[in-house]
Write a structure and sequence with these properties.
Elements: H1 11-25, E1 49-53, H2 65-83, E2 87-91, E3 93-94, H3 98-111, H4 121-146, E4 156-157, H5 161-176, E5 180-190, E6 195-197, E7 202-216, E8 219-223, E9 234-237, E10 252-257, E11 260-268, E12 280-282, H6 289-298, H7 324-337, E13 341-355, E14 365-372, H8 374-386, E15 391-393, H9 396-407, E16 411-412, E17 414-415, E18 425-428, E19 434-436, E20 452-454, E21 458-459, H10 461-465, H11 468-472, H12 479-484, E22 487-493, H13 501-512, E23 517-523, E24 526-527, H14 544-551, H15 553-561, E25 570-571, H16 574-597, H17 612-633, H18 637-665, H19 669-690, H20 695-705
Parallel strand pairs: 1-2, 3-4, 9-11, 15-23, 22-23, 24-25
Antiparallel strand pairs: 5-6, 5-14, 7-8, 7-13, 9-12, 10-11, 14-16, 17-21, 18-19, 18-20
This protein binds one RNA strand through strand 8, strand 12, helix 6, strand 13 and helix 9.
Catalytic activity: tRNA(Val) + L-valine + ATP = L-valyl-tRNA(Val) + AMP + diphosphate
InterPro entries: aa-tRNA-synth_I_CS, aa-tRNA-synth_Ia, Anticodon_Ia_Val, M/V/L/I-tRNA-synth_anticd-bd, Rossmann-like_a/b/a_fold, tRNAsynth_Ia_anticodon-bd, Val/Leu/Ile-tRNA-synth_edit, Valyl-tRNA_ligase
Protein name: Valine--tRNA ligase
Length: about 725
RNA sequence: GGGCGGUUAGCUCAGUUGGUAGAGCGCAACAUUGACGUUGUUGAUGUCACAAGUUCGAAUCUUGUACCGCCCACCA
């Protein structure tokens, strides 16, 4: 008997070695030679491809439990399809993660007593680049540690030269097609990070703030933001509001305001909620999205009140230069002194838009930015989903996706950060026009003849990530693009249902006329043992690499899969993983027993002289495998794994092997031989079908029971 | 304000098309020195949130209620 089988299974000495064997074998590449699979007579899926593009993990740090989950899921799908004879391609990647990485790096700078605002853009970029490249290595090593059978020869980084160039080309193409425009529109501004943000990069936070009622001429207006009211010269009410019938649209009223007398204009607009406050409000189009829309509709003046650092501008008179928080009480005090404060509601609860990273209150600003016109693009995406060209797992994400698509507004793709793909455009400071300029040839403004400078902004990271399936496969030309696009499955977290998935659908359809993937598989959050969200502040973060070093990666993978249906969040308990470590050892010992107790009997793949008892055992196993195959085909990996676990331990080991002890020790040579053949057969089926879930253990055992044979990774999936 | 998901054993959760309720961990008792103690055998614990309905039959389908969680949203 083989020496290797005498000890308990030790994942720590096995996993690295096995992964190296796989990587060297070339079987992660779909082109690798596989005799049975390359023959249409032995491979029912001959010539078919199966493709997954890996959501590129952030290159700025280490893997977390969520990464381990998605790598496991995608690896299961890839290994399963590979064993079924498909040319299975899984392309790994690394994400520069623009804004996110820049924030990580800014924190590092802060610790060192430095700040990005004093640095040359180029120097900052180079520093972050070096930082990212260093961390990228750890990330990749950890992806390997999870067992990812992805094709490293095709790995892409989101700042690879061709990725940058193609992203910039898309920008130009969209501009030429009228789908990208430079607009002076209201945007989300983070005063801490000094950049604009898209709508999906902001969150709402419930805050209790005072709500003030001020006398504004004959009206009483309600506001939670008195500090923006300096420039307010439009007073708005609903056209159907009978309380204000006597006032007409466009009517001018002289009144006393914060810094003296002003002339206000009455505006009637249906955006006003008659039930809210007094039904009358003044507007600040420069610093509020609703107000901006009203001003657009009626062609009203817009004036900035607050600068990009969050301080009041000279229009605020004596308050100029003050930060919002300092200015607010002083302004209220002054209005009160002038007798214009009517009352204060101290318990006003409302949602305030904040930066999703630092929770700083968003100060909306009007700014020249590049925008993607979403309506026509979204229409095509909606059509594709309605025609069932894209399937969602679980299905309810389809509705969520469609709702978002139907309601999405134009997308601001300009970011005032250096860490990203630069926007290849020239900007005219005189008339603020902008023109894409891929070749850096434009110097004068076509609108006003003014001098043009290079745009210093970078793309929103989702602008390039949205094109990821095409970029990775070498669009617009190349064999990979022809062979593997559209891809099969996009497996990603449900938190990316808006940030990423819709952009990919849009870009896929726009660039190639094809959907980028047939199926979207959403996984949930990996929570702690109590089902609570993992967070550094709670101290309940589970490091997958650490856990795996204790129990084995196969055990962690099983722990992540079993009991975790698509779309729902899961709880990761250490005890659960320990249980699967025990299972790995069980499989190890089953193999030991079968080899030991059948010494001298060679497995015969064509053996048919089974006793009726063994024939029925074989049928039982065949039925199970049919069932499991159906689970695999329908993305019920959690069920497939659990059934295999149960069969292997509680049927094969606890019952069949126990019964076999007497048979194998007995005198009935026919029965003995038949059972030995069945046990070998069952072991092989179990190892094969467990392989997508527990690749290291099963590959190791396969090598031991089948010395000199081919690797398990390319064995055919059991079909009986 | 709108939408989605959940509510099943002490804990974490499965339960694919409706057919006498499951897993892991935990718990109790027992067993066992050669496949494995990272073990085995046996067992206890559930009006499947609540109410009504459809059905021969509902954890599963329908409607409503309650609570929990998540997401979306231009509530001045």
């Amino acid at each position: 008997m083989d020496q290797k089988l005498t000890k308990p299974y030790d994942p720590t000495t096995t996993e690295g070695r096995i992964y190296e064997t796989w990587e060297k074998s070339g079987y992660f590449q779909p082109e690798a030679d596989r005799p049975w699979a390359d023959n249409p007579k032995t491979n029912p899926n001959f010539g078919k491809t199966f493709t997954i593009i890996m959501p590129p993990p952030n290159a700025n740090g280490h893997l977390h439990a969520g990464h381990a989950l998605f790598i496991t899921m995608e690896d299961i799908m890839t290994r399963y399809k590979r064993m079924q004879g498909y040319k299975a391609l899984w392309v790994p990647g690394a994400d520069h993660a623009g804004f996110e990485t820049q924030i990580v790096y800014e924190k590092k700078l802060e610790k060192e007593g430095r700040s990005r605002f004093g640095m040359e853009a180029k120097d900052l970029y180079d520093e972050i680049y070096a930082f990212t490249m260093e961390h990228k290595k750890y990330m990749e090593a950890e992806v390997r540690a999870v067992g990812a059978s992805c094709d490293w020869s095709r790995e892409k980084f989101t700042l690879d030269k061709d990725v940058i160039e193609k992203t910039q080309t898309t920008f130009k193409k969209m501009y030429d097609d009228g789908l990208v425009y430079r607009g002076k529109r209201i945007i989300n501004w983070c005063t801490k990070h000094q950049t604009s943000l898209s709508d999906v990069e902001t969150e709402f936070k419930e805050k209790k703030e005072p709500f003030y009622y001020f006398k504004y001429g004959p009206f009483t207006i309600g506001t939670s933001r008195p500090e923006t009211k300096f420039g307010d010269k439009y007073v708005v009410m609903h056209p159907a509001d009978t309380r204000y019938q006597e006032y007409t649209h466009g009517q001018q009223i002289d009144l006393e305001w914060i810094n003296g007398p002003i002339t206000a204009t009455v505006i009637k607009d249906e955006a006003i909620d008659m039930e809210f406050g007094t039904g009358v409000m003044t507007i600040t189009p420069w610093h509020d999205a609703v107000d901006f829309d009203i001003a657009q509709r009626h062609n009203l003046d817009k004036e900035p009140i607050i600068d990009f650092k969050g301080r009041l501008l000279p229009i605020a008179g004596e308050f100029a230069g003050l930060k919002i928080a300092e200015a607010r009480p002083k302004i209220v005090e002054k209005l009160q002194a002038k007798g214009l404060l009517e009352k204060i509601d101290e318990n006003y609860l409302h949602n305030v838009k904040v930066c999703y990273k630092c929770e700083t209150t968003i100060e909306p600003q009007i700014k020249e930015q590049w925008f993607v016109k979403m309506k026509p693009l979204a229409a095509k995406a909606i059509e594709a989903v309605n025609e069932n060209k894209i399937k969602f797992i679980p299905d309810n994400y389809r509705k969520i996706f469609l709702y978002w698509m139907e309601n999405t507004l134009d997308w601001n793709i300009s970011r005032q950060i250096v860490w990203g793909i630069s926007i290849p455009a020239k900007i005219c400071d005189a008339c603020s026009d902008g023109t894409p300029d891929l070749d850096n040839t434009i110097t004068t403004c076509k609108t006003c003849g003014g001098e043009m400078r290079a745009d210093t902004d970078t793309f929103d990271t989702w602008f390039s990530s949205g094109q990821w399936p095409q970029l990775v496969l070498g669009y617009p030309e190349g064999k990979d693009f022809e062979t593997y696009h559209p891809t099969d499955v996009m497996e990603t977290g449900h938190d990316l249902i808006f940030k990423w998935v819709p952009r990919m659908v849009i870009f896929g359809l726009y660039l190639t006329g094809q959907i980028p993937f047939h199926t979207v598989y959403m996984h949930g959050l990996v929570n702690d043992a109590q089902g609570k969200k993992m967070s550094k502040s709670k101290g309940n973060v589970v490091n997958p690499i650490e856990i795996a070093s204790k129990y084995g990666m196969d055990a962690l993978r099983m722990g992540l899969v079993i009991g975790n249906p698509p779309g729902s969040d899961s709880a990761l308990a250490e005890n659960k993983i320990k249980g699967y470590k025990n299972f790995a050892n069980k499989v190890w010992n089953i193999s030991r027993f079968i080899l030991e107790s059948t010494e001298g009997i060679n497995f015969d793949g064509n053996f048919s002289a089974f006793t009726p008892a063994d024939q029925s055992l074989k049928q039982e196993l065949a039925d199970l495998l049919v069932d499991i195959t159906s689970d695999m085909d329908n993305y019920r990996f959690h069920l497939a794994a659990e059934k295999l676990y149960h069969y292997t331990w509680h049927r094969l080991a606890d019952e069949i092997i126990e019964d076999s002890k007497n048979i194998l020790k007995g005198e009935d040579v026919v029965a003995k031989n038949s059972r030995a053949q069945f046990l070998h057969f069952a072991l092989r089926q179990v190892l094969k079908s467990l392989h997508p879930f527990m690749p290291f253990l099963t590959e190791e055992l396969w090598g031991i029971i089948n010395p000199g044979g081919s690797l398990l990774i390319i064995e055919p999936w059991p079909h009986l």
